[in-house]
Predict the 3D structure of the following.
Amino acid sequence: MSDDNIHPDDSGNLATSPDSVVVPVYLGQEDKFRFKCYPGISCFNECCRNIDIVLTPYDILRLKNNLGITTTEFIANFVSFYEVDGHGLPGLNLKTKDDMKACEFLIDEGCAVYEDRPTACRYYALGNMAIRKKDSAEAETGVFVVKEDHCKGHLEDNEQTVGEYRHEQGLEEYDAMNFAFQELVLKKKSSGPTVGAPSARSMQLYFLAAYDMDRFREFIRSPGFKDVFDLPSDEYEKIIIDELELMNFSQRFLRQVLFGENTIEQKDDAAEVRMKKKQQRMARNQKEINDHAAGRG
Ligand code: SF4
Ligand code: SF4
C-alpha cells in the first residue's frame, strides 16, 4: 500500500515514473472505477504488508482513541518519522513490524483497528493527494487509481463512482478533518525559500500542534501560552475539553508558527513578555555553561 513514484507536475497534473503502479489520471467524484474488496478474497491482507502509510493529525486522534492511549504514547510506539520538505519538517508514517514491513495492526482476521483505520487505508485502492494548480491559490484533492499486482480487487466485476466509494469508506469525515492540515503542508512545501527555514522552536511547536495533541493541550494550559495569546474564555474552555476543537485550533496556531499569519490574537505586551522570557532562558543557559566550565555541573 504505497507508491513513492508519483508527484503532481507544475500544472497540478499527475506525473508518474514508468514503473509506477498509479494510473496517471485524476478522477472526479462521478467517475467510475472497477474494484471490490472483501474478507475471503485471495489477496486478503496483502495490502497491509510492505506499507508506507502517511498519518494525518486526525488519523492519530482516531487511532489513539481506539487504543485508549495518549497521542504521546501513540507516537512513541506506533510511528516512524520522515522529512516532509528540505527544511526538515517532520512527517509521521505508521510503523511496521517484521521483514515484511507489515502493519502493527494487522491480525489474521484483518485490521485490528478497522473502525479507526487511517485515511490512506480507507482510500486504497485509490490514492489521494493535495494539489495546487499553477494559476490557482486554492488546494484541491486529486484522486487516482492505484493498481498493485497483488491486489485482486481490480479484477472483480463491480463498478462504483469515486463518490460512492468515499462514502462507503467514511472518507467524507476524514477528508473534512484533514483538509486544513494538508493545505498547510502543501503551502509550506510549495513556498520554499520565500518562507525560509523555521527556527528550532517553531519546529518543536509544529510537532506538538500537528501531531501530539495531548501535549499541545498542556502547552495551551501553560503560562508560556497564556502570557502571549489572548483567547476569549469560552473559546479557551472549548479547546481544553474538546479534542476536535483543539485540532481545529492547532491548524490556526500552525499558520502563525510557520507563516507568521496573525491567526490568533496576541496580548498587547506579548512581545515584551517574550523578550523577557528569552533573556531569562539565555541567562539560565549561560549559568549552566559557567557552572560546567567551573566543574560544578
Ligand atoms: S491500519 Fe489496518 S487497514 Fe491500515 S495497513 Fe494497518 S492493518 Fe491494514
Ligand atoms: S483486494 Fe486489494 S485492498 Fe482488498 S485485501 Fe486484497 S490487496 Fe487488499
Summary: The first helix runs from residue 57 to 67. The CA atoms of residues 148 and 189 lie 28 Å apart. The chain has two domains: 8-190, 198-259.
